[in-house]
Automatic annotation (TrEMBL):
Residues 211-407 form the Fe-containing alcohol dehydrogenase-like C-terminal domain. Transmembrane segments: none annotated. One of its GO terms (molecular function) is metal ion binding. Signal peptide: none annotated. Keywords: Oxidoreductase. The lineage of its organism: Archaea, Methanobacteriati, Methanobacteriota, Stenosarchaea group, Halobacteria. Residues 20-199 form the Alcohol dehydrogenase iron-type/glycerol dehydrogenase GldA domain. This is Alcohol dehydrogenase.
Length: 407
């Protein structure tokens, strides 16, 4: 892997292959869902969402209105657990509704379940065979047959919309597996056909939910700038996305509900995701690996884990390598600081505290200090660690040190 390109390094080679979703943005974009389906060539959509979203008229009424007679049905049973069994229930509903596409409304959980439904709809393997293979391998094979397309309609700031991956779990009481299992699927065919970004819809989400999801999306922009596979293209989109997110999230955290706030965070969310999930790899790196390690066996919410760990991970990063701190400082609006590394850490901490998120691991339902070595091992084994900046070689003691500093 070549050294991470630095600002102004015009000789650094890169190859950027990316097939994104069609992006639709407007303050009332969700009311154009029927138009988008028409342009995509699909007629009958099954809406996939969680129970809370499905029972929220402020969300579902414009979705129903936007789809009009293209609404084939609603499957409002997704959960954060992202169960394979839930996807099979969704597949049954998809077939009953005679649908030809899926509209995933909500956060990453609903989108991931919709992706698994899409895979199952295109495969001829029975549930027992799929469950057994998943328990053995931790993944689900994507068939060669065409998958029913997905339209993503995010209502949070987690930033799972322009992704070719999906997480999934299985439990014996909901799926034909002997023991609980978890894993994921990655395939270019899982990229949504379109993503509909509507700041008015995002504004309907409770403030606490938006704040809890915000650091997931925010950290995607941060990591994209220092990842080993950074490119000038993702530099541009992530930098502008971080600028919009920083301004919008600080205003949101201070109680500003003006429409520009939701427009800013929505456009920022869209931009920081652009190009980060590609067939030849992702730009997610150290912070996301730490987030996985902290949440793999505990109930700490992913966004909360990201908010707690991000300043400490960045402090460690800047102690070891440059980490493109000047580029990050510019993107976060602190480019004139004498010490850009310190300014970046302080700015990220400011976003966390302004959003009202926890700042210490001891204050959330995460691992105890005695578990930190085990967490560190999981972090070091995480696939996202392949993307840490050139020259950074974390050890178990290093990761434990980051966790201790966050305790």
């Amino acid at each position: 892997m070549a050294d991470t390109p630095v600002a102004g390094d015009l000789e650094a080679p890169f190859r950027f292959e990316y097939a994104p979703a069609t992006l639709r943005y407007a303050p009332d974009a969700v009311r154009s869902l029927g138009t988008e389906l028409d342009e995509q060539g699909y007629d009958r959509a099954l809406v996939v969402c969680g129970t809370t979203v499905g029972e929220t008229p402020a969300v579902m009424d414009p979705v129903r209105d936007g789809l009009g007679d293209r609404l084939a049905g609603v499957f409002a049973e997704t959960t954060p657990a992202k169960r394979l069994g839930t996807a099979y229930d969704g597949l049954e509903r998809f077939r009953e509704a005679d649908a030809d596409c899926l509209v995933a409304v909500g956060g990453g959980s609903s989108l991931d379940v919709a992706k698994i439904i899409s895979i199952l709809a295109a495969t001829d393997r029975d549930p027992t065979a799929v469950g057994t293979a998943f328990a053995d391998s931790g993944t689900i094979a994507v068939p060669e047959a065409a998958l029913p397309p997905i339209i993503a309609v995010p209502t949070t700031l987690a930033g799972a919309d322009l992704s070719i991956v999906a997480g999934v779990t299985a439990a014996p009481d909901t799926c034909p597996v002997d023991e609980p299992a978890s894993g994921g699927v990655s395939d270019p065919e899982l990229m949504p056909a379109a993503a509909c970004y509507d700041p008015e819809l995002i504004a309907t989400t409770p403030r606490s939910v938006l704040a809890a999801s915000a650091m997931n999306g925010f950290d995607k922009g941060i990591e994209t700038l220092y990842a080993a596979n950074a490119t000038p293209i993702t530099d541009a989109t992530a930098s502008h996305g971080l600028d919009l997110l920083t301004e919008g999230l600080l205003a949101f955290g201070n109680g500003d509900d003006d429409p520009w706030v939701y427009q800013s965070v929505t456009q920022g969310l869209m931009l920081v995701q652009y190009g980060i999930s590609r067939a030849n790899g992702t730009t997610l790196s150290l912070i996301h690996a730490l987030g996985h390690g902290l949440t793999r066996t505990d109930d700490v919410q992913q966004g909360a884990a990201h908010g707690i760990i991000a300043p400490h991970a960045l402090s460690y990063l800047f102690e070891q390598v440059d980490g493109r701190r000047s580029l990050l400082a510019d993107a976060l609006g602190v480019g004139d600081a004498d010490n850009p590394g310190t300014a970046v850490v302080d700015r990220v901490s400011e976003v966390v505290t302004t959003l009202g998120l926890p700042t210490q691991l001891r204050d959330v339902a995460g691992p105890d200090r005695a578990e930190f070595p085990e967490v560190a091992d999981a972090v070091l084994e995480d696939a996202f660690m392949m993307n840490v900046p050139s020259g950074l070689e974390p050890t178990r003691d290093d990761i434990v040190g980051v966790l201790e500093s966050a305790w």
